[in-house]
Amino acid sequence: MVRREFLRVLAGTAAVLAVPAVASSAKSFTLRADDDQFLDDMERRGCLYFVEQASRANGQVLDRAAAVSDGKIDPRRMASIAATGFGLSALCIADKRRYLPHAALLEQVQRTLRFHADRLYNNHGFFYHFSDVETGERFAKNEVSSIDTALLLCGVLTARAHFSESAEVHHLATKIYERVDWPWMLNGGKTFSMGWFPENGFLNARWNHYCELMMIYLLALGSPTHPIDPSCWDAWERQRMRYAGFDYIGGNDPLFVHQYSHAWFDFRGKKDKYANYFENSVTATRAHEFFCVNQGQPYSRDYWGISASDSVHGYTAWGGPSTTGASYGGVDGSVVPNAAAGSLPFLPQECMRVLRSLKENYGEQAWGRYGLCDAFHPQAKWYDPDVLGIDLGIGVVMAENLRNGFIWETFAKNPEVAVAMQRAGFHAG
To answer: Residue 303 in contact with residue 354, Cβ under 8 Å?
Structure first.
């Protein structure tokens, strides 16, 4: 019943109006009616993934699934805690946009929160990165992950704010968030460990330089039960990147590092003593576009964007600009749609151009039930047979933020968010 209703709406034609979008950088941007229609279709398809590729028993979302799907859950059983976090946010969008009946979406949110609050293994509130989608058992020997737990929590808090009429949602979401023992994951330092293994304890690697880490520190600063000291916000390095006239905080990391924290935390018009991080991501995205286009064919203004994704050679952490001109992971002509989709609020005109061009030029092979496949390389005649939950998720959330700022505004209704921003020293600017 749920899937049939979703597909009926998906097949329908939405009313098309000129929709004002949020401000990006120093200029305003207004979506054309056909751009908004494109984004609506992309979001509908992405939200469908988080309904069909989630366990009917517990709400966990698969890490990946086949791009060409019959709507049944993929037989591969590896669920991702991060994909589930994006999924909870996508369910809020689906509810706001009326892609599915409210009762069905609320039930899925409640089912997901019940499982994560009361049944799924956690250590000091942190979850394994991957688990069996039906049983919740640890998948292989992966780590209890600090960053992936943070991505889940962002979705949990978004759901708590959006489905505020449900006392159960509020209770369960609060339980999941407030039991996280943030100081434990610091492991005696000022920066977070990347994770913990039952076999040998904490990872030595730490979240100690600018990347997608801001969400971890802000969630911890805002915790009403186990907060960290505000000095931890100052403990991680903000390295400078100077490339082709662009100057910003960052490195030659995959582009998603400039997107993930921004999916929920609204950094527009705010700065701490170091930077305006929204404008920093604008600059980083411009540098990334320049870097790709400057590689020459097949890259162009219609075809650019690489980030961590599948590739012809397997999963690759595609990098980008660097001071040497090289890219971590190399560049081989592949394009990764979530690079542009996740950057929509930063460079709306340029990213819209890429996404629409990818569909129009490669749609039959690249555009499927859940939207664009994870990556493709037309010159090599390779189109990823899969989509990934986190990569679809960042596109869905950022498309909605561009259209009306919904996830930003909803997430900010959680009082802990304002507390965290204040403790980190954010102010208007």
So the answer is: yes
Question: What is the rounded distance in angstroms from the CA atom of residue 87 to the CA atom of residue 329?
Answer: 28
First to last CA, the chain: 49
Phi, psi of 201 (to 5 degrees): 80, -150
Helices of type H across 323-412:
337-341, 348-366, 389-404, 406-411
Q: What are phi and psi of 26, to 5 degrees?
A: -90, -5
Cβ neighbourhood burial of 395 (10 Å; 0-12, 13-18, 19+):
buried
Judge whether 365 and 385 are in contact, CB under 8 Å: no
Cβ pair 207, 260 in contact under 8 A: no
Element of type H or E holding 187: none
Considering only CA atoms, which of 409, 427, 401, 283 is closest in space to residue 23?
401
Q: How confident is the model at residue 324 (pLDDT cuts 50, 70, 90)?
A: low
Please report, for residues 10, 248, 340, the alpha-carbon distance to residue 113 in angstroms, rounded to integers and kept in the order given.
Answer: 27, 38, 31
DSSP 263: G
How many whole angstroms separate alpha carbon 84 and alpha carbon 389? 8
**3-class SS shares of the chain: helix, strand, coil, % to 5:** 45, 15, 40
pLDDT tens-digit profile of 344-401? 999 999 999 999 999 999 988 999 999 999 999 999 999 999 999 999 999 999 999 9
Cα–Cα nearest to 223, from 180, 164, 172, 167: 180
List pLDDT tens digits, range 178-209. Answer: 999 999 999 999 999 999 999 999 999 999 99
Fold of 2-428: Glycosyltransferase (1.50.10)
Which structure tokens are listed for 192? Answer: 């977070």
Q: 415: Cβ–Cβ under 8 A, 6 or more apart, which residues?
A: none
Enumerate the β-bridge partners of residue 376: 335, 383
What letter does residue 257 receive in the DSSP assignment? G
> What letter represents residue 77's amino acid?
R
Encode 110-129: b = buried (16+ Cβ within 10 Å), e = exposed.
Answer: bbbbbbbbeebebeebbbbb
**Across residues 260-270, what is the average pLDDT?**
98
pTM over 0.90: yes
Print burial letters for 355-367: b (CB count within 10 Å at least 16), e (below 16): bbbbbeebeeebb
Distance (Å, rounded) from C-alpha 385 to C-alpha 375? Answer: 9
> Quick count: other Cβ atoms within 10 Å of Cβ 14?
12
Contact between residue 105 and residue 95 where contact means Cβ atoms under 8 Å apart:
yes
The residue whose two tokens read 């969400």 is 215
Domain ranges of the chain: 2-428
